[in-house]
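Q: Structure tokens for this one, please.
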Amino acid sequence: MAQLLAQSDLSAVSNEESPAFKDYLELCKIKVIALLVLTALVGVALAPDVGRGYLEQLLSLLGIGLLSSSAAVINHIVDSRIDAIMARTKNRPLVKKRVSRNRALAFSTLLGTVGFALLVFFANWLTAYLTLLALVGYAVIYTLFLKRATPQNIVIGGLAGAMPPLLGWVSETGILEAQPWILVMIIFTWTPPHFWALAIHRRADYAKANIPMLPVTHGVSYTKTCLLLYTILLTLVCVLPFLIHMSGYFYLSSGLILNFIFIYKAVLLKVSDDNRSAYALFKFSIVHLTLLFIAFFIDKLVM
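A: Here is the predicted structure, written as tokens:
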């Protein structure tokens, strides 16, 4: 293994003398991290006001973002072999040797260390440990084991990616409470249809890389049915914050509209023999979650 890593580094010297800043940003999956930080911000906004300053809150969110970025870099390292096989990921920095494994690992360590320190100093130890646990859940348990072991990988492993609202809440209060777990449930329920839409679109890629995604192991039709059922379940879960008075009518109306569109698109995908709309559904799911959590934030301002 050490010899292979050395050969990889030597073959990449000409490309790696000065890796571009954009390569490191790509390793961080910056767009995904931005969405995670948005959901953490909503957790901060909905938590009881304990008098923390804006700077403390900002640095806490930065810590969550940096630790999440560290997990994303580890994901690139672990998945570099299968990334080289799949068309969607074949141009990633590690695959093209624009950044070496050693540099990526050092970068991940730096991000994780700084992020953890920010959470310890500007939030609390509980937030720091929970965020670190989420990192391990995504970068190790999901990426290294679940992703390659079961077609339910994204269902089980989705909990790690659903944690940011809870982390934002705990960064304010320092304690675990019931309410933020509902926000976690929303993202946890949203994750399978989000990824299954992509998996349908990239089924051949996942099959080629020997990754047991649901469309590969159980077929596209079965996956479409599961996707549709999860969008219905998501709609029900999204009503819970209103029912327990975490949010008001602005959030409720926005959430219902967004979820009905999600269900409608899932129905169209289910009844269609053409799978090209799966990628459009995948892209809409990102818009859906972004607007849903923005609605949470706006609702908090107008309540």
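A few notes: Residues 1-16 have pLDDT under 50 and may be disordered. The two ends are 58 Å apart (CA to CA).
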